[in-house]
Write a structure and sequence with these properties.
single chain; alpha+beta; 4 helices; 3 strands; 42% helix; globular
Length: 97
């Protein structure tokens, strides 16, 4: 299933990857993903600009809602194993375009 740049950007941000930087960089090291990601979280509450994209990624099974934080105002979202797999699959074509 194809994903948009915005969806890939949110997956990347959640995993600690600056997709726009990787796309614009001329350095080879910025065009490669690490073997393991150092984080996996995205914090968003009601009214967050990225909430519709997060919910779309959830429907695609690429992200899942986690615990509520900040006295229940925000939700931590996590990239699923399927989402990590999809991000890895599309990363090279996105940063090379």
């Amino acid at each position: 299933m194809p994903i948009t740049f915005k969806q890939a950007e949110i997956l990347g941000h959640s995993l600690g990857v600056n997709l726009l930087h990787a796309k614009q960089s001329t350095k080879k090291r910025d065009k490669k993903l690490p073997k393991e990601f150092y984080r996996n979280r995205f914090c968003a509450g009601d009214g967050h600009d990225d909430l519709p994209t997060l919910k779309a990624l959830e429907k695609m099974t690429y992200m899942a809602q986690g615990q509520k934080i900040n006295k229940g105002r925000d939700t931590l979202w996590y990239v699923t194993d399927e989402g990590i797999k999809r991000f890895r699959e599309c990363f090279e074509s996105i940063v090379s375009a």
